[in-house]
Amino acid sequence: MMENNVLRQVPKGLVLEGGGLRGMFTNGVLDVFMSHGIGFDAMVGVSAGAVFGCNYKSRQPGRALRYNLRYKDNADYMSWRSLVKTGNFVNERFAYHLLPYEYDPFDFEAFRTNPMRFYAVCTDIVSGRPVYREIADADGKGLRWMQASASMPVFARPVEIDGRHYLDGGLTDCIPLKFIQRMGYRRNVVVLTQPLDYRKRQAHVGWVMKMFLGDYPKVAQLMAHRHVMYNGELDYLHTEEQKGDTFLIYPDEKLNIGRLSLKEDKMRRVYEAGVAKATALLPQIKRFLAGE
């Protein structure tokens, strides 16, 4: 009995990979978690894992799918027009000012009072190193950190916070399991947005991209070597899973949705895939978190 109680008290973490609109799979998983009262002591999100995952801490099931469906055809939300006019494919004013405060209000108070710790991963574009920012209050600067975590090179301008500039956390740490382990969380659930057998190929950083990133040479270097980092993290995940203290949730097959695709049928299909996967794994997840 004492051994079982100790297992139940082991700090539990949740790790959310990014992937743009592939994150609809993660939304489906998290909504199942909320409907079944599954909680964690801490979570860390990268890119879409942060901007969608924050709704798990604010206890707002369905919100991420809802507002993406509602505004999918609004060029003021996500569009090439916004990219040309503002430098951001995801319009900053719409997504980080109007949306969370007026159009589909984010529950800042619920986020603040939820005791689960929340971290977002960003990349410092000068040092080329990951930054793990704990966000206790999503209002104001907290939203800036989430925006930075999800700001993809070329498709977004660097986000300035306290005099430093940041971009997508996926440049330096796509699946931050090691980080959450370093923070003391010993039983962790990791939600991936690619099938288990996926391996990233080397990206070709052409002259056009280098022109856009001319002021940030570290970013171009990171993009050219990102596949090495990512595939190494996958290998580490498999090792930790075999040890029995990491539980992986992933789509059964490639999701076939672009990072910036706002097609309703695809978003719904990917979301439902997440719901189905989490529902099927629910008994195993509960046993894992209980230390059984």
UniProtKB/TrEMBL annotation:
- Where on this chain is GXGXXG (motif)? 18-23
Q: Which UniProt keywords apply?
A: Hydrolase, Lipid degradation, Lipid metabolism
The answer to whether UniProt assigns keyword Ribosomal protein to this entry is no
The segment(s) forming the PNPLA domain are 14-181
The UniProt entry annotates the motif DGA/G at 168-170
InterPro entries found in the cross-reference section? Acyl_Trfase/lysoPLipase (IPR016035), DUF6363 (IPR045943), NTE (IPR050301), PNPLA_dom (IPR002641), YjjU-like (IPR037483)
Q: Which Pfam families match?
A: DUF6363, Patatin
* Keyword check for Lipid metabolism: yes
Q: Where is this motif: GXSXG?
A: 45-49
Q: Which residues form the active site?
A: S47, D168
**Protein name, entry field:** Patatin family protein
